[in-house]
Structure formats: structure tokens, C-alpha cells
Design brief:
The chain is α/β, with parallel strands linked by helices and 156 residues long. 24% of the residues lie in helices and 17% in strands. The chain is built from 3 helices and 7 strands; from the N terminus they run H-E-E-E-E-H-E-H-E-E.
Length: 156
């Protein structure tokens, strides 16, 4: 007579029927929540100064950003006084036309709520920032924000 062995019952195989649903749900979530960068930085990412009191901007759609720092490419020169407006390296004299162009993109009712944000490297010269502020005053762009990161203010 032959021996009959009992077959060992293992765990059932994992069902992968719902896997495509989960993958598409994750894909849809990341497509909806991801924002695309509007400009590519031609200057090195600014090392922002630290501040003890910071406030977050409310309506980011009404913020025009001016980057100040060191250019990534040496064809623009060296030093920390390069100004980037949209996707090109510019001078302080180009700031008024940049602001007027940004104002034309929003409705007339929202123009008073527009803010100009300056993201300047902490090694940038104060003269460059003063030139930008002067040009902003010329076109009546008086709401100004200086970007910083939250840190402790060390006073001696």
C-alpha cells in the first residue's frame, strides 16, 4: 500500500486585483498636488539671511519675485550682485518694466494687493538692493517683502 501524505496548506497568495486602482489613485494625487516651477534659476540658490520675526505671504499668486545672487554661469560675470527677473539676468534699470509686465497679468482690482518679493543672497551688496528698492518706488510698487528663513537673532 502506498503512503498518502497530507499536503501542507500555506498562506494564500496575495491578491493583486486592486493594485492598479491604488497606483492610479497615487498618480492622480501627485499630478494634482504638484506645482511646476515657473522660472529656472540662473543664479545660485540664494542663501537667505535669518530673521527672528517672519511672516508668511498670504496670496502667492500676487507675488512677483526678484532673485539677487551669484550667477551660475560665468558668462554673466562674477560677484553676488546679479539680478534675475523671470528667466533672464537683468539690471536694476529693468525692474520697472518687469513690474509693469507683472501688473498686466492680473486684474486691475488686484493690483493694489501685489507684493514684490526679493530673494537675495546674504552676501549680496546692499547697494544692489537699494537700487532695486529705488526702481520699485519709481513705479509705485511699495509692498515689498524680503525673503528670509526663520532663525535666532544673535546679538552681542
Amino acid at each position: 500500500m502506498s503512503k498518502f501524505r497530507k499536503k501542507k496548506k500555506g498562506l494564500p497568495a496575495l491578491s493583486t486585483a486592486s493594485l492598479p486602482d491604488i497606483v492610479f489613485m497615487l498618480l492622480f494625487f501627485f499630478m494634482v498636488t504638484t506645482t511646476m516651477r515657473e522660472t529656472s534659476l540662473l543664479i545660485e540658490a540664494p542663501r537667505l539671511p535669518s530673521a527672528s520675526e517672519v511672516k508668511k505671504l498670504e496670496r502667492k499668486s500676487l507675488v512677483s519675485t526678484i532673485y539677487v545672487g551669484k550667477a551660475k554661469d560665468t558668462k554673466y560675470g562674477t560677484g553676488f550682485d546679479k539680478i534675475q527677473l523671470n528667466d533672464k539676468i537683468s539690471t536694476a534699470a529693468d525692474v520697472p518694466s518687469f513690474i509693469i509686465n507683472e501688473r498686466s497679468k492680473v486684474s486691475e482690482a488686484e493690483v493694489p494687493f501685489m507684493t514684490t518679493s526679493i530673494k537675495a543672497d546674504k552676501e549680496s551688496s546692499v547697494g544692489t538692493l537699494a537700487d532695486i528698492r529705488e526702481k520699485l518706488r519709481d513705479v509705485n510698487a511699495l509692498k515689498l517683502s524680503l525673503s528670509t528663513h526663520k532663525g535666532s537673532a544673535i546679538r552681542k
